[in-house]
Design goal:
Order of helices and strands: EEEEEEHEEEEHHEEEEEEEEHEEH
Structural class: alpha+beta
Strand content: 35-45%
Distance between the termini: 60 Å
Shape: globular
Strand order of the largest sheet: 6-7-8-9-10
Radius of gyration: 21 Å
Number of strands: 20
Length: 270
Amino acid sequence: MDKKKNSERILNSIDFGLSGDVPSLIVKIDGIDVLSIDEFKGDFIPTEAPTFLFNEYMWANSKEDNVFNGTMLIGMCSCGCHGCDDIVVKISTNSRTTKWVIMLDRNHKKKRAFFFSTEEYTYQINKLKDDYYSYSWETKEDKIRRICSEYIRTFKTKEGYNIEGLKIPAIWDDACENITGKICDTIEIYYYSDWEPMGKGYGRPYHNWKIKFDGKTLESAMKSLERFATKSLIKSDGEVSLRPTPFRLLYTKDKTVIEELLAQQEKKKQ
């Protein structure tokens, strides 16, 4: 493996790539795809690039949710479901070195540490973001999802809940059980309401609306969204975040956190 030396330890190299129309994230350490490393070989597929860049891994306990200090998803079961059988990385960064500890979520004995120059790691992360935001990977369907999501997030419900985003599912070919790449004619708009008891902790209930469009064009999707927003939503005030809400802000079992969240919630109502 190609490694760089410093005075304390041998450093690994890292680079990122994008593949497909989601796009998927390809991570290479010392030139080798992470999913090909012996400890992590199996029935895995890469996670989506936006999941790695912007989302906290859903089962993480960390209060951080970023690519410099946090627990992030880099691989998942070939079934495509997060939480089924994941490969996660715990990331910690100081001014000189960035440490990755890659592990199988359901078997922490299978783990391996890698160290990178923080300067080089930061460069590669910024390059990945530039590649992602170029949207050169986008299909027509991806473009419809992105532009519609950016638009609807500028609204909130009449009760004051911010719109979290929207989903336009892909069409499945039942004959071969594969995604066709095309999208269906239903847009699902969703948001989360106030904290309430849920399972063994507290969570924010999920709510949604479903609206129709022609399933083909951005123009049709936007007209449907505009009609719905004019009738059923109100414009958000202040800055609009395009990042999904981290899982830790949707569900928790931590009693101290629950008390704080409920107090904040009650204060907003006053």
